[in-house]
Amino acid sequence: MQKLLVSVVAIVALLAGVVIFNSLPQPQPQALVYEPPREMEPFMLKGHNGGDVTNADLTGQWTFLFTGYTSCPDICPTTMADFKKILPQLASVTSQPVKVWLVSVDPKRDTQQKLAAYTTYFGKEFLGVRAEHKNLYPFVNGLGLMYSIPAEGEVDYLVNHSSAIVLVNPDGNRQAIFKAKQTPGQVPTVDMQQMAEDFQIISQQYR
What we know:
The chain is built from five helices and eight strands. It is an alpha+beta fold. The protein has an eight-stranded mixed β-sheet. The protein is globular.
């Protein structure tokens, strides 16, 4: 009888603990999370390997997308290097593959070969994608990002572009966007450690 009483008390205590835990405020990501996730418009780009890249290539994986170009002097190489460092941490919190897409916003200079050499340096999880402006601009705009198009005839130019990072879920829909920190005198970049912490929360809450 005493053993039964102890068991009942233990079960009641466990259930009470579960109820209390579920009633506590759950951690929330600092990123802008889309609820519900936003569908991606149909697109067709080219990968750095020469193959077509469509919506289907976003499914079955978590994908981080950001705009950049191989001649970029600051934001792009910094973001790529930061991603290379943080990828093991990102991959450790989900059973789905984690990929990174560099969306080139400089189709004039970023040929397939140049983009391939640049992207593959960072690892097999990275994919460089490109397109001419007529297909590229709607795709980038659909992500909630932007970039500038140089004037006709310009040769040595910089491309202004968003420094935010977009997260696409395994269904191929936009799940969140990570904004860059704006610090006077410094290159605006996304806080990768905060992004990793947010991603853990987002991936755990997925479905």
